[in-house]
Amino acid sequence: MVNETAHNELKTLLDNTFEGFDHVLKKFRPSLKIREVGMVRYIGRGIARVDGLRGVESEELVRFADGGLGMIFNLDQEEAGIILLNEGTGIKAGSEVRRTERVMDVPVGEALLGRIVDALGSPLDNLGPIRTSQRRTVEQDAPAIMDRSPVTVPLQTGIKVIDAMIPVGRGQRELILGDRQTGKTAIALDTIINQRNKDVVCVYSAIGQRSSSVAKLIADLHKHDAMKYTIVVVAAGEGPPGMQFVAPYAATTMAEYFMRQGRDVLIVYDDLTRHARAYREISLLLRRPPGREAYPGDIFYIHSRLLERSTHLRKKFGGGSLTALPIIETEAQNVSAYIPTNLISITDGQIYLSPELFQKGFLPAIDVGKSVSRVGGKTQFPSYRSVTGTLRLSYSQFEELEKFARFSTRLDETTRKTLERGKRVREILKQPQYQPLPVSYQIAVLLAATEGIFDEIPLDLISLAEQTICKEATEKLPDVCKRIEAGDKLKDEDRYELITMARMALATKEENSLNANT
Predict the structure, then answer these.
(1) Mean pLDDT lowest for which of 124-138, 329-343, 464-478, 496-510?
(2) Closest CA to 274 of 200, 207, 204, 343
(3) How far is CA 326 from CA 275, 286, 351, 354, 471, in A?
(4) Domain check: are 311 and 211 in the same one?
(5) Among positive and negative, which fits the CA dihedral 432, 435, 436, 438?
(6) CA atoms of 138 and 459, how far apart (whole Å)
(7) Which residue(s) pair with 100 in the sheet?
(8) Taking the CA of residue 226 as centre, how many other CA atoms within 13 Å lie in the half-sphere pointing to its CB?
(9) 295 & 258 share domain
(10) Which residue in 108, 180, 118 sits closest to 140, CA to CA?
(11) How large is the average pLDDT for residues 453-478?
């Protein structure tokens, strides 16, 4: 009887104790967080395979025991595939991996302007931490069709051959492609430099390039006072492939912040060929099934979801624009290769650079016949259309005629004149790097070329004659230049004044040269 009583008392005491514990746990349970810890099963170049993270999400950041970060890429039944965002030299099989419960994001805001950052938004320029109050996830949905507005405003590159014959509009995606070392980056760099004092934010994403090449480009941006409105996102070729894969998405997120604020933004992806190769590398290491040329089956999708984020928003959503200039590298002029054809079908036109023109010294080496802008013509200033309306067709005809003329020694007078004018137009379209031209200068020179004012000028003096016309236009016709820069239509009297000015300027120059020689 005594034992039964003692047993009942002990049971009651234990029940009361457990009830007390349960009450305490209920009180503090909302503030408790259970951290999932996984274990590295395999570590390779740029990737790791981990088990134990049962609740992890796609694209979630995880932290390794050495402090490095990774991003969840594969979610398999037994394990998670992770792409490393650091070198990962301190990670070993058996190391712990912890969830951060945070999808990968980057800082956004005005504080990024003028800075050089990596794909995580960490500074690389030794200018101190980047203090921003906002962060946005790297992956964002592209704006809906009904949120978009037609592309109506030109984005001036300052390059005559592009602005006159392959124009780019704000919100357009214009592909730049060509073989190695043909001047692709130079075109993008000149376009960024030309946005000075135009209230356009520029973002340059360097993907898989040598650090020395990126350093030179940044030095050029500083030299031409372009860094103050530019963000440079760097994923060097020596770094992990995961950073090269993430870099263009991170750069686009930084650019979208300004677009959502109603501003115009230009983004350059240099280049997406290396981006595709980095994606292929990490996909094969994580055992994703290969397809054509060993690229995964969704290689088209990774670029389409990136470039679809570039657009011109409706006024209701701020009216900002994001213009994309993706760059890709072709091999032996093979434009019909896998990655080039994918990107040609995604973008709104392409600028093709020819190695033959580059070797002949025709810079920028843009092949007008293979280049096209499917949107920009609607955004072009009326002055361009009135001056260069037939220039593209006549220039292409000249190039074909020049090929046939090599096999003939006797040419009729009309053919000879066509060839001579075409040679001068081609000379006019040459342009040194780092010297983008205002719209008024381009119109004055192109009008003189189409009117035949340069026909009697020797080819080696065309550049000097061009400089003379630009100088005279600024000094003698400032009002006409202002109207052209404002986008006004070129009136008949303005056209007459420009032609008269050009003729008189060249005649005076020739007379002064004769007097000097005498």
Answers:
(1) 496-510
(2) 207
(3) 11, 27, 10, 17, 35
(4) yes
(5) negative
(6) 52
(7) none
(8) 24
(9) yes
(10) 108
(11) 93
Q: pLDDT at position 397, please?
A: 83
Compute the distance between CA of residue 389 and CA of residue 375 in angstroms, rounded to an integer. 16
Contact 160, 431 (CB under 8 A): yes
Structure tokens at 359: 């070797």
Strands 116-117 and 60-64: unpaired
Contacts of 240 (CB under 8 A, 6+ apart): 45, 46, 83, 84, 85, 86, 87, 88
Q: 56 to each of 42, 59, 139, 451, 468, how far by Cα in Å?
A: 18, 9, 17, 68, 67
Q: Report the candidate in 184, 149, 367, 158 with the shortest Cα–Cα distance to residue 268.
A: 184
Q: What is the mean pLDDT of residues 487-497?
A: 93
DSSP element (H, E) containing 246: helix 241-260
Asked if 64 and 70 count as a contact pair (C-beta separation under 8 A), the reply is yes
Q: Are 372 and 348 in contact (CB under 8 A)?
A: no
Catalytic residues, by residue number, are 374
Q: How many CB atoms lie within 10 A of CB 430?
A: 16
- C-alpha–C-alpha distance, residues 483 and 493, integer Å: 12
Indicate whether 405 and 316 sit together in one domain: no
Q: Burial of 127 by CB count in 10 Å (0-12 exposed, 13-18 middle, 19+ buried)? A: exposed
The confidence band for 28, taking pLDDT boundaries of 50, 70 and 90, is: low
Q: Is residue 489 part of a domain?
A: yes
Is the pLDDT at 14 greater than 70? The verdict is no
CA distance 120 to 240: 13
Question: Which CATH number goes with the domain that contains 254?
Answer: 3.40.50.300
Tell me how far apart the alpha carbons of residues 429 and 162 are, in angstroms, rounded to a whole number.
9
What's the half-sphere exposure (Cβ side, CA atoms, 13 Å) at 299? 29
Q: How confident is the model at residue 88 (pLDDT cuts 50, 70, 90)?
A: confident
363, 423: one domain: no
150 assigned to some structural domain: no
CA distance 244 to 240: 7
CATH number for position 58: 2.40.30.20
Distance, in Å, from the CA atom of 184 to the CA atom of 429, rounded to the nearest integer, reads: 17
CATH number, position 443: 1.20.150.20
Determine the pLDDT at residue 36.
81
Do 298 and 441 fall within a single domain? no
Into how many domains does the chain fold? Answer: 4
Based on the fold, state whether residues 249 and 164 are members of the same structural domain.
yes
The angle at the Cα of 461, spanning 457 to 464, to the nearest 5 degrees, equals 115
Position with higher pLDDT, 451 vs 410: 451
Residue 344 lies in a domain: yes
Predicted TM-score (pTM) of the model is 0.91
Q: How far is residue 418's CA from residue 57's CA, in Å, rounded to a whole number?
A: 65
Rounded to whole angstroms, the maximal C-alpha distance in the chain is 140
Identify whether 168 is part of a domain.
yes
Mean pLDDT score, 202-208? 97
Range of the domain at 11: 2-31
CB 327 within 8 A of CB 188: yes
Rounded CA gap, 359 and 487, in Å? 36
**Residue 517 in this model has a pLDDT that exceeds 70:** no
